[in-house]
Every structure is written in C-alpha cells, then in structure tokens.
Amino acid sequence: MNKILIVLIALPLLSALLSLLLPRIGNWLAGLTVLALTVITGWLYLLRPFNNLILFNKFGVVLVLDGFSHLLLITANLTALFIILYAWAYAGKYRNQAWFFALFLALLAGINGVALAGDLIWLFVFLELAALSAYLLVAFGNKREQLEASVKYLLIGEGASLLILIGCGLVHQLTGTFNMSTAAVLLAGGGNHWKTVAALLFIAGFGTKAALMPFHFWLPDAHSAAPAPVSAILSGVIIKALGVYALARVLFNVIGLTPHLAFLLTTLGLISIIFGGLLAVGQWDMKRLMAYSSISQIGYIFLGLGLATPLGILGALFHLFNHALMKSLLFLNAGAVEQIAGTRDLRELGGLRKKLPATATTSLIGTLAISGVPPFNGFWSKLFIIIACVQAGQPWFALAAVIGSLLTMGAFLRVQQYGFFGSLKKELAQITEAPLAMTTAMVSLAALCLLVGLTFPLVISLLINPAVVALSNGLGYGRMIIGGL
Predict the structure, then answer these.
(1) Which whole-number Å values give the CA distances from 375 to 78, 217, 435, in the listed order?
(2) How many distinct helices (H) and strands (E) make up the chain?
(3) CA 384, CA 326: separation in Å to the nearest integer?
(4) CA neighbours within 13 Å on the CB side: how many for 36?
(5) Residue 277: pLDDT over 70
C-alpha cells in the first residue's frame, strides 16, 4: 500500500495536465481530484495506526507518512476541497479558468510532496513546485496590484529558497547525504558551528515562507492582491506547509532543536503575535487586515513549537489545523464581499448582514473562532499554548499570547462593525447573496470551526497526538525511518 503515497503527488499533476487539455471540464476535474485526495488521506489513516509509518523508497524517491506528515496532508487537502468548491463560482469571471485550476492542482501536488518528502532535495523540489504555482496564482487576475504583488512574492520567495538550498548543502557537507533520516542519525552524534549555521539558514528561509516576523514583508501585498481562493490557500495551507511544517520537520527531526534555537523560535513567535496583531487593528482593507492577522496567528504556532514541551507542541499543531479552517473561511468571506459589493474597504461597506445573511453569519463564526472564543476551535488551541507557557515558567509569554488574542478580536470586530452591522449603504441596496457553491464552502468551513471545537478531545486524540509524537521523537525519527526502510 505504500505506492499510494505516489498517487497523492501524481494524481493532481496528471489532473492539472488534463484540465489544460480538456478546459471545458477543468473545474470538475479539479473538484473530483481534490475530493479523491481528501478521501485517500482519510483512508490512509486507517492503514497507519497511531504512530506507525508508511514508507516508499524507489527510483531515488523517499516518501514518509508519519503522524506529522499525515496531519499536514489532511489539513491541506480538506481545506483545499472547500476552497476549490468556492472557486467553481468565483473563477467564472476568468477566461482562462483551465489554467487557474491546473495551477491550483500543481500547487496541491507540491504541498503533498513537501508533506511526504524524506529527502532534503525532494523537499526542495516539491517546495519550489508549490511556490512557483503560488506566484502565478497571485498574479492570476492580471491587475497591476496583482502583478506587482506576484513579482515581490517571487523575488522574496526565491531569495528564501536560496537560503534553504544553501542550508541543504551544508547538511550534505556535514553528513554526506541529503536523506533526512540518515542525516538525522549522523547529526545526532554531535556537530560543529556549521550545524548551527544550517539551522539559522533554515529558520530564515522557511521563516520567510511562513511569513514569520521579521521575514513577513511579502505577505500583506500577496494576500490582499490575490484572488480570494488563492488568498485562502496561501494563508490556510501554503504558509503552513512551505514554512511551518518544513521548518519544524528539519529542526526537530533532522538537525535537532537546541535550547538556543528554541529560544529564537519563541522570540520570533512573540514578536509576530504582538506586531502582527497591532498592524491588523489599523487596517481598513479586509484582506490586508486578515493578512496581518495571519502573521500574528503564525506566531502562536512558533511560540508553541519553541516551548518544545508536549503541551506546547500539541497547542502549536492544533492551532496549525484550526487556523487553516478559520482563516480560509475568513478570506472566502472577504472574497464574497468584494465580488458582490465591488470593494473590500470597510469604510465603503455596512449593513451587509441584511443582504448577505450566509456570508455575514459565517464571518461572525470565523471571527469568534480566530479570536479564541469558546466553544469554537481557536479557543482550545490558544488555551493549550497559554497553559504550556505557564507550565514552562514563562507567564510573560502567556500574557503576550492573551494580548495577541485581544488584538485579534479587536481587528475582526471592526470587520463586523463596519462591514456587516450598521446601516446599509444606498449603493448596496440591490446586492444579493453569493452563489450556492461559494456559500456552501463558507457554511461548511464555519460548521467545522464549531464541530472541531465541540469535539476537540477526539480531534486531538486521532489527529494531533500522532503528530506530536512524531515531532517529540526528535532525532529518533531518523532511526525509525532507517529501521522501516
């Protein structure tokens, strides 16, 4: 059954090609492909009990499915399923829809490859596949702001990729291999200052991909300019896969997380939480506000990872999953508002709940979830991170996390106040609710935010704990993989 791992990468690539050859059914091909990927990742859960491994090692390709990679696969493909449903209606305004769906599928293939890669070079190749697809998708509307944002994203993103490639080269120089498990075993025996240099290069490179402060400066323009489905997958999945997941995998399971590196992660996480929140509060553009909020929420994940305690890691990985649902929902809400009202400037909106009840209700649910209000999913992951800070003897970290959550609430309550409540503007009197495909996607994500919050012990037991075990195993990951191969 290990050959099914190849399918998770090959299927979306094949479907991307077919969508270009058969453009009239490109949207259906994309939808069915993402549905199949979601089903396969769920089915694989039944084949891979708790902390077991599924390995593929042929043709020079090493793929590894453990609890951590499985978490990313489920997060990415489940979120993509609702985004592609939304895109069926949203992308109707584009002439070259086939290219949109082909790039989306290529992006998903790259993300799945990043999740499964057991070799640093293949990790880099899949990362570049996803990144190049993302650059093109940001520019897809061909508007000036989209092209400028795409070029900025490309230049900064490829600069980050260069740092990552140099880091991979240093690991090879130290160990004689790009294989992550073999490198982990060899690096566990000690190292020199070049090992730390490689770690710092990875933090800078993957930190840029994750939009972690101070490497965040590409994200506000890219998120605000991109089409709504692209903004949703950028914030919900891409910064998690190409940034958070890749960095955590390399630091925890290949190089080894030292106290100094852990302190650096917590420091950058705290800076991102506070300053990302402060910048979000001052925005009038809905999507730009959400972009800065993404920086803040990524800070929570790095704070939990940097604590390096079981509860801290659990809170971080649970927040990775939750943020994918919450922020994807909120970006889809913003896209619906922009497409229907013709603007995303909060000063030009108001009273939209009277005309857009589904969009308004799901936006309110997203606001409550990301602000950490019980019983929604965001409350629990933030709570675990805050408790982990206190248990680690860092009450000031916990206080900063609470302040960050209040800033998030303040920012998104402005969206509710100026966008959905208040009096309806005369020029918006004739607008109607978003198409069925778009509202179905938004309602589904909103329902998941509530359902995950209500059933969080089950979600943690089945999905999050196996990922925590994989990361907490540290450099023992290498010995497990070698034993399996």
Answers:
(1) 21, 33, 29
(2) 21, 2
(3) 17
(4) 16
(5) yes
Q: Which helix (H) or strand (E) holds 61?
A: strand 61-65
CA distance 248 to 264: 13
pLDDT category of residue 189 using cuts at 50, 70 and 90: low
Instruction: Give the model confidence (pLDDT) of 229-238 as tens digits.
Output: 999 998 888 8
**Distance between CA 344 and CA 76 in Å, rounded?**
26
Burial class (CB in 10 A: 0-12, 13-18, 19+), 392: middle
Q: Show me where the domains of the chain are located.
A: 265-454
pLDDT over threshold 90, residue 475: no
SS3 sequence, 151-181?
A: HHHHHHHHHHHHHHHHHHHHHHHHHCCCEHH
Q: Where does 252-309 have alpha helices with state H? A: 259-281, 286-307
Nearest to 118 by CA among 246, 238, 301, 209: 246
Residue 332 has pLDDT above 80, yes or no: yes
> What Rg do the C-alpha atoms of the chain give, in angstroms?
21
Which of 331, 327, 357, 328 lies closest to 344 in space, CA to CA?
331
64 beta partners? 55
- Collapsing DSSP to helix, strand or coil, 94 comes out as coil
Dist. CA 232–CA 107, nearest whole Å: 13
Quick one: tokens of 419?
Answer: 């966008």
Q: Which of these, 13, 157, 24, 16, lies nearest to 100 by C-alpha position? A: 16
**Sequence-distant contacts of 421-429: CB under 8 A, at least 24 apart:** 421/350, 421/351, 421/353, 422/350, 422/351, 423/350, 423/351, 424/350, 424/351, 424/352, 424/354, 424/355, 425/348, 425/349, 425/350, 425/351, 428/341, 428/349, 428/350, 428/351, 428/352, 428/355, 429/355
pLDDT score recorded for residue 49: 64
Cis bond before residue 214 (omega within 30° of 0): yes
Partner residues linked to 56 by β-bridges: 63
- Would you state the pLDDT for residue 128? 95
